[in-house]
Amino acid sequence: MWGQTVQLRRPVSGFASTHPYYAHLDGIRALAVLSVLLFHLDHSILPGGFIGVDVFFVLSGYLITGVILREIEQGRFSVARFYQRRIARIFPAFAVVIAATYVASLYLYSAQDIASVGTSGAAAALSLINMKLIFQGDYFTISQDAQPLLHYWSLSVEEQFYFLYPLALLWLTKRRILPPLLGAAAVSFACAIVLTYLAKDIAFYTLPTRAWELLGGGALAVWHARREATRRPGLAELGLVGLLLSFLFLGPEHFPGPTAAFPVLATLAILEGSRAEGSRVQRYLAWRPAVAIGLLSYSLYLWHWPIFSFIDYRLFAASAEVRLALKVVLTVVLSVASYFLIERPARRYFNRQGMVRAALLFFVTGVLALSAVGYYLRESHYLGADRGDIAAGGIEAVSGHDRDVLLLGDSQAYMYALQLAELAREEEFNLRVAGMPAGNLLPGEEETVWSDVASMVAREQPDVIVFAYAWGIKIGEHPERLAQAMRHLTSHTGNIVLVQQMPLLSDAVTRQSIREGLRPPFVEPEDRGSKRRSGAAVVDTYASQATIVDVFPIFDGPDGTRVIGEDGRFLYQDAGHLSDSGAALTMPLFEEAIR
Fold first, then answer.
1. Is 356 helix (H, G, I), strand (E, B) or coil?
2. What is the DSSP string of 285-320?
3. pLDDT tens readout for residues 205-239
4. b/e burial code for range 382-394 (CB count within 10 A of at least 16 → b)
5. Residue by residue, what is the 3-state secondary structure of 534-553?
6. Quick one: which of 293, 256, 255, 287 has its CA closest to 274?
7. What DSSP designation does 564 have?
8. In terms of DSSP bridges, do strands 404-409 and 430-435 run parallel, antiparallel, or are they unpaired?
9. Residue 500: in which H helix or E strand, if any?
10. What pLDDT is recorded for position 229?
């Protein structure tokens, strides 16, 4: 099948001898991308702007199905050539944006968010980021400024679809095409409706619940292949009005289930109604500025979200006007540069005859490189242990020195791991990390790994144990848990460092809330503060047996909790954890205690 050309047994009529270009289709692209950009700039500007992605799906299915069928009719369809064109069209700018996002995240993000970008980048390169995002939550509520590759989910859906779709079409051309496409679309739409109410994240991100939109466009292309263009007065106008109303009034409720039918049907109506020459909507959509935006639409889509995310993340305290201006200017400049310097030259180069192998090699090499760099970013910026790591003796972060330091605890320990590793290299001591996010390490806790911890400590006999824990919620009412642990730990080390918790924040204190106008003082909620103080009181009773590192005063001030550093960075990762910028402020205390 690869590289071979095939001929339809029963030719499909109605195709020209070449692939025609219709300017109004770029106008539809312009509508789609502008709706997405406006939605991401401010949801209130265009509440339903997110459906621009659905418009892209329909248009993509329509155009690519038409191209495939036309080439099959002409006896020159090649699966290898199809993927060559996909690579030439999609991958160069796709790869550059991921690489640029990697680099920018190193300068702008916290270590934990850099690790997340690495994972997302590798998943995006493999066209699997939509599957990763299922486990991160709702598209409309996820912490978007820390997800600069979030928008790649739609590209993953498309690439998964086109992985097998050309072969399916090739097989179907020997039979009747339209009924199977419509049947598959109906099944997909039914799945979307059901899963929207049962598992919305799966419905939003996955191919089985989105395929009907691409198949709808494909079915219309098959319909058009057999029929001459016919004037259908008012249909395109009706579709355009329906699409604009969808942009203005649709919301995330019941999406992408039944409500997704509105923009999909509206787009199909525009495609059908504007097909005949002389259509008013065709003339509107072929307006030169609209066509220019449509030509830039892929670069605009790729670049806008990383730019928006980085600006919101790093300049969260800046005015909305400043952030808006930077977003618009940088998006336009980088998109235009991307189109003229990357998209067009790469497409011309890799689309040439005889470049199939070169294009495939470029693609495979790029995917492997982006995945490897993403994995490296994840591993080099994440030092969280799991149960298997603790059973194996923890993660060896720094080695080759005389003194052994063990970092022990839950996520309260993990948040210090990277900064302690830097300190270990500077002060020349070994660091073993047993900080287990979301883990229970004390005896008597549910699903505790205490037995593994006890065995590890007895086996390793570290010189220093640094123990950081969510004392407030884990020992406030159970002081005996820490007492039992301390009896074991003190018998196997000469120095224990117990780390008190910093002030806890309200969940309302976020970069987004500050962007929306929230200002200091930020005060620790009483319920959280009460639990924290209860745990701190228990820890303080061990002052004669351990060194107590109290980081609380660093972040507690006369104007409330300190959440923004002098360099403008957010000192907290979330309400209960420090970012690496916040953890860095505590290192002098750790250095003194470990000495």
1. helix
2. HT-HHHHHHHHHHHHHHHHHHHHHHHHHHHSTTS-H
3. 999 999 999 999 999 999 988 777 677 778 999 99
4. bbbbeeebbeebb
5. HHHHHHHCCCCCCEEEECHH
6. 287
7. B
8. parallel
9. strand 495-500
10. 64
Give the pLDDT of residue 62: 96
Extract long-range pairs of 164-167: CB within 8 Å, 24+ residues apart.
165/64, 165/214, 165/218, 166/68, 166/79, 166/82, 167/1, 167/79
Residue pair 461/393 in contact by the 8 Å Cβ criterion: no
* CA 426 distance to own-chain centroid: 34
Q: Which two tokens stand for residue 567?
A: 């360099």
What separation in angstroms does the CA of 87 have from each of 60, 72, 128, 239? Answer: 15, 20, 17, 32
Q: Determine the 3-state secondary structure of 503 from DSSP.
A: coil
Would you list the DSSP string of 93-162?
HHHHHHHHHHHHHHHHS-HHHHHHHHHHHHHHHTT-HHHHHHTT--TTTS-GGG-TTTTHHHHHHHHHHH
Q: Give Cβ neighbours of residue 241 (< 8 Å, ≥ 6 apart).
A: none
Torsion angle in degrees (nearest 10) through CA of 279, 285, 288, 289: 160
Nearest-angstrom CA–CA distance, 576 and 527? 13
Q: How far apart are the first and last CA of the chain?
A: 68
Domains of the chain, CATH where assigned: 27-380 (no CATH), 387-594 (3.40.50.1110)
Task: Please report, for residues 280, 468, 505, 523, the alpha-carbon distance to residue 527 in angstroms, rounded to integers and kept in the order given.
Answer: 63, 21, 11, 12
Residues of the chain with pLDDT under 50: 1-17
What is the residue whose two structure tokens read 């005060």? 523
The type of residue at 287 is W
Closest by CA position to 396, among listed 375, 365, 417: 417
Three-class DSSP category at 566: coil
Residue that has been written with the tokens 């492997």 in this structure: 368
